[in-house]
Amino acid sequence: MERATTAGRPRLSATLREGEQVTPLELFFDLVFVLAITQCTALMANDPTWPGVAQGLLVLGVLWWAWDGYAWLTTVVDPEEGAVRIAIFGAMAGLLVVSLCVPEAFDDLALTFAVAYAVVRAGQIALFLLAGRDDPGLRRSVVGLAVSSAIGVGLLVAASFLDGVAQGTVWLLAILIDMGGPYLFGAEGWKLVPRHFAERHGLIIIIALGESIVAIGAGADTSLDAGIVTAAVLGIALTAAMWWAYFDVVAIFATRHLEEAPVGRVQNEIARDSYSFLHFPMIAGIVLVALGLKKTIGHVDHHLEIVPAFALLGGLAIYLLAHVAFRYRNVHTLSLRRLLVAIILVAMIPLATEVSAIAALAGVTVIAWALITYEALRYGEARARVRHQAAP
């Protein structure tokens, strides 16, 4: 593929990036999102109530949409070429400020959060417009995205002057309008490098899973004893099961399906639905599990309160339900096993409040690994074909 920086062409254009591999600068950019996820977990951990969890998930939704916008951007342009590199550094600074505001995003720093978020989104839109100056289709899509983004940012600014239920409602409306833009304005004009796009989202799953490990360390803030060590091992085992559920087969198959889809609207809609939308509940589920692990490690011998119990069991259920929707969107079949396990986990939430935290964690871990083991044995031949088939 001809590079976008060849003579006679602008340094930044709508030409697809030359390489499929995620660049070091993109990984560097993602490190800021690590802080954002940590801040969301801390926000919920400091206020483990239903309103606290709702606020954490709303903030996570806003941060996710900002990150995902840059994932789409860097599948169009090479982030390490020319002035784009400096612009990415600027976006990192803006996203860092947004992340620092998370603990007070609904209180004293609500307006600062909204303004910093506006700067991050404006940078993305500006780079997209520059990239689409020679591509009318991309430019139309970006203008549509700019409209929905401006409305979403405006609502966040308005929400900063409210509080309570009214503030949360405006936040939710802002997220729905911002995320709904790509549906309203169509997907025909976007550009995509499928393998790069899928890999970028897979890496963000790993980053989110890393937050579960960080939560284990944060929860074990007292001297180690047998209970904390056991809970830590169980936490790692649960995190490993979540990793397996995504990367063993799902990620491989989904990447190939995206690559083989017809270029243009069909491929873009698969990317939008499967990755931009359905990866968010996966991330949210992982963050909730991290919250549950943090509370479990800190109180291994006590009963979990209802909200931490929901986070631990319900978070895993949300993660699995996102996988069910992910599969249905791509192959139009249901994963009844994961759907059944998700239902069982939700049904067990009241029970988890009646036993010790470590017992609840052990039960969740056993269920997760039972699902993984069953799938690996029952569908071993199909699993081997997916894992060892040559990539297209």
Polypeptide structure, described:
The longest helix is centred in the middle third of the chain and has 26 residues, at 194-219. Helix 8 (226-247) runs antiparallel to helix 11, helix 11 (279-298) runs antiparallel to helix 12 (306-331) and helix 13 packs antiparallel against helix 15 (357-378). The chain has 392 residues and is mainly α. The protein has helices at residues 24-46, 50-73, 84-101, 110-131, 136-159, 164-184, 194-219, 226-247, 250-260, 265-277, 279-298, 306-331, 336-347, 349-352, 357-378, 380-388. It folds into two domains: 11-191; 200-392, Up-down Bundle (I/LWEQ domain), CATH 1.20.1410. The protein is built from 16 helices and no strands.
How much helicity do the residues have?
Answer: over 70%
How many domains, as an integer? 2
Profile the largest sheet.
none
Mean pLDDT: 90
Low-confidence stretches: 1-16
Task: Break the fold down into its secondary structure elements and pairings.
Layout: H1 24-46, H2 50-73, H3 84-101, H4 110-131, H5 136-159, H6 164-184, H7 194-219, H8 226-247, H9 250-260, H10 265-277, H11 279-298, H12 306-331, H13 336-347, H14 349-352, H15 357-378, H16 380-388
Helix pairs in contact: 1-2, 1-3, 1-7, 1-11, 2-4, 2-6, 3-4, 4-5, 5-6, 7-8, 7-9, 7-11, 8-11, 8-15, 11-12, 12-13, 13-15
Key features of this structure:
392 residues, mainly alpha, I/LWEQ domain, 2 domains, 76% helix
